[in-house]
Amino acid sequence: MSVDRSEYLKEYYRLHKERIKERDQLFNELHPTALAERHKRYITKYPDKVKEARRKYSMEHSIDINLKSSTWAKNNRDKVRINAKRYADKNPDKSAAKEGKRRASKLNRTPHWLSKEELNKIKEVYKTAKQLTKETGIVHHVDHIIPLQGRQVSGLHILCNLQVITAKDNLVKFNKFIIN
């Protein structure tokens, strides 16, 4: 009489569930990247299965994934900042591309008709932000009142579109045009 291997394994797992969990936990502690590597291989090998499982989970749990992640991000700003820094360090090429896009946007949004005097006044605004940071100990940013890359409206990189605000206020504002 032969025993079906899959049935045998299911029964073995049921009987030794706790021991197997402890063994797996110990392995993951000793080899922290192994689990992540297995996960990456699975996602690469079965992208459709992963996508379907995520879709099914969000449908069953009535979760708007974007809403949940944005709420989490607002509540965990330090973790988001650390993860962004870690990502930038691991992906210098992508970070450089993103910064290049921002610089290009700024250049494209700087009108050619600005005089040297106006360009110098813009530089003074940046110096003011740096000076305020030094004097108060609170980090200040130069903010574009109407963002250069806004979703609904885009502004210009000109003097009347700049303001010096605290970094905290600027990061909360993000890429939005807020009317006071």
Largest sheet strand order: 1-2
Structural class: mainly alpha
Mean pLDDT: 84
User: Spans with pLDDT under 50 lasting ≥5 residues?
Assistant: none
Radius of gyration: 26 Å
Shape: elongated
Helix percentage: 55-70%
Number of strands: 2
**What is the terminal-to-terminal distance?**
81 Å
Number of helices: 9
Strand content: 5-15%
Run of helices and strands: HHHHHHHHEEH
Main sheet attributes: strand count, strand direction, barrel closure: 2 strands, antiparallel
Topology of this protein?
Elements: H1 5-15, H2 17-30, H3 32-45, H4 47-60, H5 65-75, H6 77-90, H7 92-108, H8 116-136, E1 140-144, E2 162-166, H9 167-173
Highlighted features:
180 residues; elongated; 68% helix; mainly alpha
Question: What report would you give on this structure?
Answer:
- The protein is mainly alpha-helical.
- The protein has nine helices and two strands, in the order ααααααααββα.
- Among the domains are: 73-108; 114-180, no CATH class.
- It has a two-stranded antiparallel ribbon.
- The mean pLDDT is 84.
